[in-house]
Amino acid sequence: MADQTNPDIVYTTVDEAPELASASLLPIIQAFAAPAGVSVGKKDISLAARILAAVAGAPDHLAELGGLVKTPTANVIKLPNISASQPQLDAAIAELQSQGHDIPAYPANPTTPEEERIKAAYDAVKGSAVNPVLREGNSDRRAAQAVKNYARANPHRMGEWTADSKTTVMTMGARDFCSNETSTTITAAQAGPARIEFVGADGTTVLKEGVPLDAGTVCDATFMSVAALRDFLAETISATKEAGVLWSIHLKATMMKVSDPIIFGHAVEVFFAELFEKHPELTGARGGLGTVLNGASDAVLADYQAVLDKQPPMYMVNSDTGLTNLHVPSDVIIDASLPAIIRAGGKGWGPDGNEADTVCVIPDSSYAPVYAETIEFFKKHGKLDVTTAGTVQNLGLMAQKAEEYGSHPTTFEAPADGTIRMIAANGDVLHSHEVEKGDIWRSCTAKKAPIEDWVKLAIERQKLTGYRAIFWLNADRAHDAELIKHVTPILEAAGVADKFEIMSPAEATVASLETITKGENTIAITGNVLRDYLTDLFPILELGTSAKMLSIVKLMQGGGLFETGAGGSAPKHVQQLQAENHLRWDSLGEFCALGESFKFLAQSRDNAKAGVLGDAVEAATQKVLEFDRSPGRKVGQPDNRASHYWFARYWAEALAAQDKDAEIAAHFAPIAAKLAENEETILAELAAGAGTPADTGGYYHNDPAKVAAVMRPSPTLNAIIG
Ligand SMILES: NC(=O)C1=CN([C@@H]2O[C@H](COP(=O)(O)OP(=O)(O)OC[C@H]3O[C@@H](n4cnc5c(N)ncnc54)[C@H](OP(=O)(O)O)[C@@H]3O)[C@@H](O)[C@H]2O)C=CC1
Ligand SMILES: O=C(O)CCC(=O)C(=O)O
Ligand SMILES: [Mg+2]
């Protein structure tokens, strides 16, 4: 019998669109898995659940899962969750309070130890608080062959690129994280708890103690000069004005939850410098204009409008409501935003509701060249031909909070002019930087075992595919140069150095685009940030969306974490569902992850029935593609719920048709028949509410009964599923 306390597969409860989709899909999965003796349990890692665990003593499912992923039998299906910016956190707290939960507001300026404690608890929930905890392995993201074949046969819409496009990338290139970086590998003598300290005119202050550093860890430190950043931002604004295009800024304020909101705040202050000069009382730039202008007087709003009129037009999140790029730090997230602009032919939405070319500001120059080169490539060659293009797969160094995405506890704003130093346990000075007040300093690490595992995965995948394999490492950047010292000997020892190229991100971008343009395939072997960026960029170009990606994390202790797609939680989709009861979320990523999860169960626990379920999921996924059963974007078209009906039907048909397990075949034959017989009724029942508002009882913390009513509106289907 299925064990619910220790389920074979853990499915995650998350937020927004994927969670709404789960309300329809998970009951189908659980019902289909049960006859094979496979239990599918749930763990709640939503923002609301994390808040309640942090400040109201609710069970901490994320911590439980964080333990589970370190065990060899872990089998987790991880859907995308909100990585909350400050405004999202505040909104979620307010919603929970309105529902009667007795939780404190976020104490922005704590004055007592209790408030300090509450603030720290909330801060731990903020930003990318889930993925780094669960990702105890490196990342393997690629399009399944069936998905790629479908995309080639059914090309998505892409904007035209022309040589005269004024869309460009602007980046600092000096005095930024990339150029100030220093990097070293920790020796046995230096291993142990390190210390980060600030040495100023008034003496030495310890910023952080007990930073654990193991021997063999690549340890970097760097900083961004805030004076240089502000000068650069001002320059981008004048250059944009001159070019007569939209101004846009692309950051990752969610995942880089300490550094990027600071950079975002500077952008708000520089863009609206006149407003802040005139109204020095305005605060909250890091929370965006939404926070700055909250409750603003008419005079302030008039001055805000006057600055807007003077400055270059801004790239908009929603031109109908006046929501700009600078309103909320989490509305424009670089991994999704830049590919969308590139897919559209270099166009973004302007305040007049029309598409226009745009200057894309990406302050740090570590990875900006990827987008700059992509844009130049398409200007020169025209848009990608999806019908013939090959694919870019990704193997990303991610385990154990690798690189920038693990740097939040070791990121600081310089308290004054002085020096920030990192001192090893044995007293060696690992890093030392002269900083000015407000400069953003950080240290990142990549541990030895994850690096070795990452190279090993690359060797395996290259051998399996024979594809062109490129390490995207820039020999002129300190961290990458240090990493190359680790990668090369491993490749040489394995006798495969000739199968791999090492190129800077700029060169690798061009090489990869040339490769796929020829219809050939390539593997991008990258660090953690490029893993994130490229697994949206290339899928969005090749497949139209990153929702259809296979996203596997081979946990280093032997378990499996199966992420669904490579994108996020699509807030726009929730708004559409609430307004007109249409959910355009495509669960193809969930289908792909589910198939892999069953297959992993079959192999890790020698469970043949799970293998049968997994094979049938794959067959069903192919049929969903083949017969175009994915959700439409517009109300009136079949939506997410209809796609789940088709998935269930094809899955049941494949289970009934297989001959490996007669018992399972016999169980599913009548289900398949009933699903087919009732097709018309079910689809009509699923579509009945289309066009009217839908009530889910909340945004961050839904009412499960209301969501079930909205997402499972077909009594006929529900009765068949049981
Ligand atoms: N793994 C994770 O947990 C991740 C979480 N996030 C979080 O998600 C939130 C939103 O991030 P954002 O950058 O806007 O990225 P999203 O990926 O959520 O949204 C970008 C756009 O991608 C399209 N899209 C994404 N997934 C699907 C899908 N399954 N089906 C159909 N279309 C899809 C939608 O396009 P259209 O509107 O045109 O339909 C959507 O508006 C943030 O809170 C962010 O932190 C982001 C990335 C990964
Ligand atoms: O954790 C997050 O905030 C986003 C993760 C992400 O974008 C990715 O892994 O592709
Ligand atoms: Mg991403």
TrEMBL record:
InterPro entries per UniProt: Isocitrate_DH_NADP_mono
The catalytic activity, as recorded, is: D-threo-isocitrate + NADP(+) = 2-oxoglutarate + CO2 + NADPH
Q: Record's SUPFAM superfamilies?
A: Isocitrate/Isopropylmalate dehydrogenase-like (SSF53659)
Question: Keywords on this record?
Answer: Glyoxylate bypass, Magnesium, Metal-binding, NADP, Oxidoreductase, Tricarboxylic acid cycle
The GO terms describing molecular function are: isocitrate dehydrogenase (NADP+) activity; metal ion binding
* GO biological-process terms attached to the record: glyoxylate cycle; tricarboxylic acid cycle
**Which EC class, in a word?**
oxidoreductase
Please name one Pfam family that this protein belongs to.
Answer: IDH
Give the EC number(s) under which this enzyme is classified: 1.1.1.42
According to its UniProt record, which cofactors does this protein need?
Answer: Mg(2+)
Q: To which protein family does this belong?
A: Belongs to the monomeric-type IDH family.
| NCBIfam families membership | monomer_idh
Can you say what this protein is called? isocitrate dehydrogenase (NADP(+))
